[in-house]
Backbone:
């Protein structure tokens, strides 16, 4: 694989990573970084010239940066880097470990109120992370008082 093809692979991997939200990045970031790294293991026939050697080194450094960005995004998480008040139900389930059924049961029982802990926007249920944290704290105090 020539230097031009290697640069295209690295650029494609960077573009894919840049276009992902945090959930996609956590799921697919490793695969994309590995795809970009795959060409560094490929043997290039013949001894590389000075220019190819410099370009190859630059590509390897670029791939190292891609790996670092993916690793940071996966370990820190989007909530740490981009604090949000409201998240969609599927993201809430992903980060909290709670189930969709539990959320719906709390809404139905009136424990979570629309406009406070949750709300529907464009037909999708959104969860207020800060209000849920406050609800958990209040609920825990009630439980201890019993």
Residues:
């Amino acid at each position: 694989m020539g230097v031009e093809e290697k640069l295209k692979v690295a650029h494609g991997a960077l573009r894919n990573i840049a276009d992902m939200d945090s959930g996609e990045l956590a799921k697919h970031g490793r695969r994309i970084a590995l795809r970009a790294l795959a060409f560094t293991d490929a043997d290039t026939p013949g001894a590389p010239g000075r220019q190819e050697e410099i370009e190859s080194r630059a590509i390897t450094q670029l791939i190292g940066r891609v790996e670092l960005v993916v690793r940071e995004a996966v370990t820190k998480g989007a909530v740490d880097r981009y604090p949000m008040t409201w998240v969609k139900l599927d993201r809430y389930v992903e980060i909290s470990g709670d189930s969709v059924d539990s959320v719906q049961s709390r809404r139905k029982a009136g424990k979570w109120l629309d406009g406070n802990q949750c709300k529907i926007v464009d037909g999708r249920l959104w969860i207020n992370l800060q209000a849920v944290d406050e609800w958990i704290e209040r609920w825990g105090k009630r439980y201890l008082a019993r």
Remarks:
- The beta strands are 86-88, 118-121, 124-128.
- The chain has a mean pLDDT of 75.
